[in-house]
Amino acid sequence: MTTGAANDRAATLLRLHTEPGFVLPNAWDAGSARILEQVGFPAIATTSAGIAWSWGVPDGGSLDRDTMLDHVGRIVTAVSVPVTADLEAGYGETAEEVGETVARATALGVVGANIEDVRADGLYGVEEAVARIEAARAAAPRGTFVLNARTDTYLVGADGDVFDETVERAIRYVEAGADCVFVPGVVEEDTIRRLAHAIPGPLNVVAGLASTTDAPTLFSLGVKRVSLGGSLARASMSMLERAGRELLGPGTLDFLDGAISYADLQRRFGS
Fold first, then answer.
1. Is 3-232 a CATH 2.30.29.30 domain?
2. Looking at residues 239-258, what average pLDDT do you find?
């Protein structure tokens, strides 16, 4: 992908954050990405959870950086819409390693990424987390890459008031260069509204994880970006499990009702 094409995709993704709100679906392989593109989504995210599950391992750092980036690269080359990657905590102990991860992602044509502020033993200290966002921003200048700073305060807890710490971290991350702030795990509508008002940048929340609030409602609360995390992958794997149980049980083929035909998928995935 040329630099110009990548910058155009980054501009498209960034522009979506200035609109009333958009849904960003998460693909876990090239095939799921192409289906989502064909449905009509203007941009696609990856899901570290879905990718890990497709490898038969749990989410949360089970895949090394090389494996994850190789998989993400396959998704990028499969579609013509912008792709933003779930890079977990940046695949590095140091800020410099986070910057290297982001630089390698941009070389693949990725035009955005999540960088989270949590590790196995809890949240990074604020200063260390800020340094990691700064390193990511330095590796991918503003306007060429949509940096989504994720804080896991509502998933792992905080030392003090969780709302206050979330806002404090969000402000620091935006000051460090983040284009958007991702707060997974928040479910109460009033809290989401307060976060959207207090955070000086677009707010991203995830639907289908702890909350089943629909996208239009989230937009009305001030959310700009609604992602799905591993929800689409979970739904697909749940369908596979139900089909397997049906085959082992009555042996019927009801699970094929409404399935895309072989010929149709061949056409969709053809050049």
1. no
2. 98
